[in-house]
Predict the 3D structure of the following.
Amino acid sequence: MTKLIEIRNLGIAYGGHAGWTDVVEGVCLEIARGETFGLVGESGCGKSTVAYRLLGYGAANSRVQTGEVLFEGIDLLKLDASSLARLRGNRIALVPQNPTTALSPGMRVGQQIREMILTHQALPERMSMEQRIRDLFALVGLPDVSRRYPHELSGGQQQRVTIAMAVSCNPDLLVLDEPTTGLDVTTQRQIIQLLSDLRSRIGMAMLYVTHDLALLAQIADRIGVMYAGKLVEVAPCDRLLSNPAHPYSRGLIASIPTIMHGHRGGRGLRGVLRRDQMAEGCKFEPRCDFATATCRSTPQQLIPVADEQSVACMRWSDIVDTADSIPSSISGLRPKRQAARLLSVEHLSLSYAPAGWFSELLGKTPIPIARDIDLELGAGEIVALVGESGSGKSTIARAISGRLPPRSGTIRVAAKELEPTLAQRSVEQLRQIQYIFQNPDASLNPRRSVRAILERPLQHFGIASTPEKFESALENVGLHAGYLNRFPEQLSGGERQRVAIARALLVNPELLICDEILSALDVSVQTKIVELLLVLKEQHGVAMLFISHDLAVVRQLADRVAVLYRGELMQMVDTDALFNSPLHPYTEMLLGAAPGLSKDEYVPKPPAMPDSQSIAGRGCPLAGRCPRQVGALCAESRPPSQITQSGFIRCHIPLAELAQGTTDSANTRPTQVSGVPPLLRLQTGA
């Protein structure tokens, strides 16, 4: 294949008056036309820093020390601003991690795409601008949403808009920085399918930066593994995931949980990436189980070890895979026990348009978001709330935390009814419930140091603060005291999220609301946070409402799972029972969409725009999408709640008939549901 872009000996440093610190050292890689290259590694390893240099972007306090970035033989590092502007969006385009901040909130999305096309004069002959924009939306599986503002679209739809904008000029190279972080499994698979289709249609190459190796297995041709600013292994995707050669690659893959078994049960990574403790030789030496004194003093370089596979490790051939002999420290930690009820939610209904005279004056009808939600948590119990984007998971969490007054229903903690809003609740009730948000960029004050961020809740609740308390809080989330004087902008996305988790835990809450808190973290840090949460549960009786789209982590962590679809609880069941025998058609859809570490044949249908009024109707919210729909009954009648052995399920189909279509084995995914193909083809709202 023809080489499109080549990085040669790239070195990048961050710093200023106090000196410069190397964050990327000697990176060499190349991407051919039409190839997808995945770049993985722990938070702070430098993968996004490398990716953004392909567009000529760099932080104000960064500088290129060495190297070249050659695009069709032209060194991008030597181009002036106007030359880079002509390339960006036209020949090299970016899909950022957070579409909410990438899209202008004051412009309709169609106008934003129009601006991109006009900037590069990329409109095909004899085609109107409106038609081109409609075609781009169709390309990413959306109807014409050109007149909508970003806030009127779900997260998955916003991400599709950013992809449509990125490919509007048919770029040769697409740089993707964690494009599916925070999206549910079905939306993730739709976006991966979309990217694969775009690659085959317009022949573009992709650099895909991510920590999600399971998703990468579905799209990447080759993978590069980074550690502490250096590439430690490069190999074809299937070879790296099945037979990694570097100890770090092995530990990274062993840290990945699966929906079949929860944790893989192998040796994961010990310790955390600390640049102040790295050796002069191999940077991974402080964490490597196979390191010798020679490793500490001898720098490692990539050397070929097999066809198209290179590794930076002198001991790669001597390393023995010990995954089968060393069990995971977090597998099997889900003892059954009766606990006193801590949280009780009864008949909760929510909407985002407030009812009352003001709404009536404006002629606005409240749009229902959730209806008739019943939920209980015991002390020390973890209940996972799962469902696709827009199903109402975060809305329910906001109501429990007092950030959204309910239209009806009651919320009790420790048998005491809570006031509907934060302002009405007592200081003790505020301390009892702590909320960890999905996006730490919005929840951490950018003008305060990490020390001040951690100190603020202690001051608010009258808890004594000591340096030891701060250091312990950071160590619990895989950080160290050296972070106390840093500001959020000096941290990676994963490091910011760990600070947010540490802040919530400092005040000893009784209930933690965790809203997609692991989505921005790499798998090794996820493992450490899961271990921490399990310790809090077992030793301190902290209950958690754990909102997540990662079903493998849910199996690893949760005692029970609540499945939500368009504002209605479709199923509530013990975790093992849900994965062993999902029963509900929608639960089977979610499990069928969860990717594994090998490429599969799952092909989702093009997504459909969700009906915002669907839960206000009389029938099942899944009607029209369910592969087992019972004629008009499902569309016209609300399904009854059927009691199961460990919970309930809301469906018209009798339990005995539902059970016939599910697997009895914990080690396999659902394979047959009344004649429906093994991998259910979904038609979903984004």
Notes: The longest helix spans residues 185-202. The chain has four domains: 3-220, 242-254+268-318, 341-558, 571-660. The domain at 3-220 is CATH 3.40.50.300 (Rossmann fold). The two ends are 35 Å apart (CA to CA).
